[in-house]
Specification:
This protein is mainly alpha-helical. Strand 1 and strand 2 form a beta hairpin. Helix content is 62%, strand content 6%. The protein is built from 3 helices and 2 strands. The chain has a two-stranded antiparallel sheet. Helix 1 packs across helix 2.
Length: 95
């Protein structure tokens, strides 16, 4: 539970059992040892939260790509086959 300007915020945690590489557990232990985290669970949550931003950006890219593909489908866009070789040959002949 967190208190922010007199407002009580309740953060709900859901326990999940997972298998981790030994190196990750050792890293979590070091985070506790040096006071970066209160517990190994807290350390692993911190690792996940720091990585979420990167994952969210990656997912945003794929969501935008999918929206673009859906838009192309709605507009009945068709890819013509065989034109790439001609373009490549034309560019190569210019060199």
């Amino acid at each position: 539970m967190m208190v922010y300007l007199g407002i009580v915020w309740c953060i709900m945690s859901i326990p999940v059992t997972i298998k981790l590489k030994k190196e990750i557990v050792e890293l979590a232990g070091k985070m506790v040892k040096y006071g970066v985290a209160k517990s190994r669970s807290h350390a692993i949550r911190l690792m996940i939260e720091h990585g979420i931003e990167k994952v969210a950006k990656e997912l945003e890219f794929w969501e935008n790509l999918r929206r673009g593909v859906e838009e192309l489908k709605r507009s009945n866009y068709r890819i013509s086959h065989g034109g790439l070789s001609a373009l490549l040959n034309e560019e190569r002949s210019k060199r």
